[in-house]
Write a structure and sequence with these properties.
Neuraminidase, Gyrase A, domain 2, 35 strands, 19 helices, elongated, alpha+beta, 749 residues, Topoisomerase II, domain 5, four-stranded antiparallel beta sheet
Length: 749
């Protein structure tokens, strides 16, 4: 048996709550700063930064050859990033996908996935190298332009941020989810960004409206059309938060005999083409898009999705308006410019602040680069001054080197040289003693003196620093203006209104159908109005529960024993060739709940709903309509009570029949009307519960139908008329013996 771990008597007790809070906060900050959020200066997360730096160390420059992606991933996880290889490879793949990144940072060779959502090939099969834009991000990194830190194992160093001569954060965008915060930045056009940055250089406090004259909005790699109004775009870029609607781009192609088809040429950003087509096809199958006849994918290198309408008389714009509403042909891109600022603190920034902080970083890079170069010049001039002294005293220098035991010390003493100068003279090759070399050294010395003078002037003049940054920006802008593939804007803008958006039901052809729902809950819509339920078959052990006539443009209301009302479009019901589909697949109805009533919706009608203990109220039928699969709560019931009846309101009286065979009639006006609730007591029961309920007009009498379909009218019910909530009297002779009053709705079979 091992000894127990000794207790440290000097340890201070710590609250578990405090310890958990401290550690969770540390974890959250680590996730935010070291994983999820990009840096405002280079627009990269740590994994992307490590990828590019590792590729530079491997000399994978644009003009060099490709190397296996596995080699790059191995270097990253081995030297800089101790995480899974698949996560690093996924990051590498994304940087190479021209449909995911507006300006790719990795030039990939091999299968790097596609817009359909297909995955890239394994890393052992693909090859990669940096693009010219990645080279701009790493430009001058060896000139002490950025700080470095030790890697996770302390064996190497990695840059904290890249010099970033390219405004990558806004150009390529970023997305990520941290602990308690997230970021979502769309890509933008580099030519527009350069123009905006140049304006910020002139006016650091520029208004957002002015900047948006240069940066029109997002510029997605997959194109599309942004349909947000200018006011919404302005608010989003001013605050750093908002959302922008993006639609697919389409054109109408003419066909012979007056026919036409819609061709989708661009889809919204981050939408998988194959999933999009599958969704539209599924909606067509479910009759949610009755105006469409066919959809097919004819894409090759470019996107080409062909949509054929059922009728040439339809307007293409109306069809597309419905598709925009119901599919991912229109999406919302969330804008949340939550990034790490130049001090490493996460903040939500507006457009001007993001551009300003990148400019500050570029200015810092320029200053550090200039100081680094100045130090190099000073060191070189020191050596050149020593060389010039040696040339002027060449014979004595040679004598000292040949004869003296400590030539370095003698040279320093004889000519007042520094240790660096003396070592440089001693290390000078004999061929450098030629007159031509002396001339070259004097020329170099003069050039370096002039460069030193210029650098010192630059470091003292913020105006000159701005001029150099502006010149670099103008050169960058000119480069991409001439590059039509990368420089041209891909996403257009078009303000639209949804006020005139057509209803999808307007495209549904109005046809008669017979809706059949079995006792086990299988529902279908058979073509035509079938009389008396003839020819309707069911699964073994199943039979009819509800059979009613309807039109394809109608809506069905299902009132369920839990007091909830559900809505189904008749046009979306499965066809009548089979036995249909379980209604519980179409709606979120619990298996234990029973369908109390099913009927065709009439928005002008009112209904009387009641529970088993005879609580009820009148509700406008329009209140029962719900677009949610979970339905809408109408009658509040508490177990063991449940909803028992739902009948149309007609006439001026209501007849309530209990399981105890007692009938009570009272004025309909005694029942309140409300949109939702428990209701009031309709009948008092000693034993049993509510059996059935009907509304009727006293002058016309109570019309009932028995099992055989025979109709009977009861006009003399004065003896059964009383006050609401009374027990009533035993039902009159001639009432149906099953305790039910027959069909309540006119279109029921």
């Amino acid at each position: 048996m091992t000894d127990a771990t000794p207790i440290d008597r000097d340890a201070e007790p710590v609250s578990l709550k405090q310890a958990l809070e401290t550690r969770y906060l540390a974890y959250a900050l680590s996730t935010i700063t070291n994983r999820a959020l990009p840096d405002v200066r280079d627009g990269l997360k740590p994994v992307h930064r490590r990828l590019l730096y590792a590729m530079r160390q491997l000399r994978l420059d644009p003009e060099q050859g490709f190397k296996k992606s596995a080699r790059v991933v191995g270097d990253v996880i081995g030297r800089y990033h101790p995480h899974g290889d698949q996560a690093v490879y996924d990051a590498l793949v994304r940087l190479a996908q021209d449909f995911a990144v507006r300006y790719p940072l990795v030039d990939g060779q091999g299968n790097f996935g596609n817009v359909d959502g297909d995955n890239a090939a394994a890393m052992r099969y693909t090859e990669a190298r940096m693009t010219a834009i990645a080279g701009l991000l790493l430009q001058d990194i060896d000139s002490d332009t950025v700080d470095f830190r030790a890697t996770y194992d302390g064996e190497d160093e990695e840059p904290i941020v890249l010099p970033a001569a390219f405004p990558n954060l806004l150009a390529n965008g970023a997305s990520g989810i941290a602990v308690g915060m997230a970021t979502s930045i769309p890509p933008h056009n580099i030519v527009e960004l350069c123009a905006a940055v140049l304006h910020v250089l002139k006016a650091p406090k520029a208004r957002v409206d002015t900047l948006l004259e240069h940066v029109k909005g997002p510029d997605f790699p997959t194109g599309g059309v942004c349909v947000e109004p200018p006011s919404v775009i302005r608010e989003a870029y001013a605050t750093g938060r908002g959302s922008l609607r993006v639609r697919a781009r389409f054109e109408v192609e003419k066909k012979p005999r007056g026919l036409w088809q819609i061709v989708i040429t661009e889809i919204p950003y981050q939408v998988q083409k194959s999933r999009l087509i599958e969704k539209i096809a599924e909606l067509m199958q479910n009759r949610a898009l009755p105006m469409l006849d066919d959809i097919r994918d004819e894409s090759a290198e470019d996107i080409r999705i062909v949509i054929e309408p059922k009728s040439k008389n339809m307007a293409p714009e109306q069809i597309m308006a419905v598709l925009f509403k119901q599919t991912d042909l229109e999406t919302r891109f969330s804008l949340n410019m939550n990034v790490l600022d130049n001090t490493g603190v996460p903040r939500v920034m507006g457009l001007r602040e993001v551009l300003g902080q990148w400019l500050e970083h570029r200015n810092d890079v320029l200053v550090r680069k200039s100081k680094f170069r100045l130090a190099k010049i000073e060191a070189r001039l020191e050596v050149l001054d020593g060389y010039l002294i040696a040339y002027l005293n060449l014979d004595e220098v040679i004598r000292i080197i040949r004869e003296e035991d400590a030539p370095r010390d003698e040279l320093m003493a004889a000519f007042d040289l520094t240790q660096v100068q003396a070592e440089a003279i001693l290390n000078m090759r004999l061929r450098a003693l030629r007159k031509l070399e002396e001339t070259a050294i004097r020329t170099e010395h003069g050039e370096l003196v002039n460069e030193r003078k210029s650098l010192k002037k630059l470091l003292k003049s913020p105006k000159e620093q701005q001029a150099i940054i502006a010149a670099d920006l103008r050169a960058l802008k000119k480069t991409y203006q001439s590059d039509k593939e990368l420089g041209a804007r891909r996403t257009d803008f078009n303000e639209v209104s949804d006020d005139d958006l057509p209803d999808p039901e307007a495209f549904i052809e109005k046809e008669p159908v017979t809706v059949v729902c079995s006792q086990k809950g299988w529902i279908r819509a058979m073509k035509g109005h079938i009389e008396s339920g003839a020819g309707i078959t069911y699964k073994d052990g199943d039979k009819a529960a509800f059979v009613l006539h309807a039109m394809t443009t109608d809506r069905l209301i299902l009132f369920v024993s839990n007091g909830r009302a559900y809505t189904l479009d008749v046009s979306k019901l499965p066809g009548g060739r089979g036995h249909g589909d379980p209604v519980r697949l179409l709606l979120d109805i619990e298996p234990a709940e029973e369908i109390v009533e099913m009927f065709v919706h009439d928005p002008a009608r009112k209904l009387l709903v009641a529970s088993r203990i005879a609580n009820g109220f009148i509700v406008p039928e329009a209140e029962l309509v719900s677009t949610r699969k979970a339905g809408k709560q109408i009658l509040n019931v508490r177990a063991p009570d449940e909803a028992a009846a739902c009948v149309p309101v007609i006439g001026d009286y209501v007849a309530v029949l209990g399981e105890n065979r007692k009938l009570l009639c009272f004025k309909l006006a005694d029942i309140p009307e409300m949109p939702r609730g428990k209701g009031v007591r309709l009948q008092r029961h000693g034993d049993g519960h509510l059996a059935d309920i009907r509304c009727y007009a006293a002058k016309d009498g109570l019309k009932l139908t028995d099992k055989a379909g025979r109709e009977r009218v009861f006009t003399d019910l004065d003896d059964w008329v009383g006050l609401r909530a009374q027990a009533g009297r035993v039902r009159p002779k001639g009432f149906p013996t099953d305790g039910l009053m027959g069909t309540a709705f006119a279109n029921r079979l």
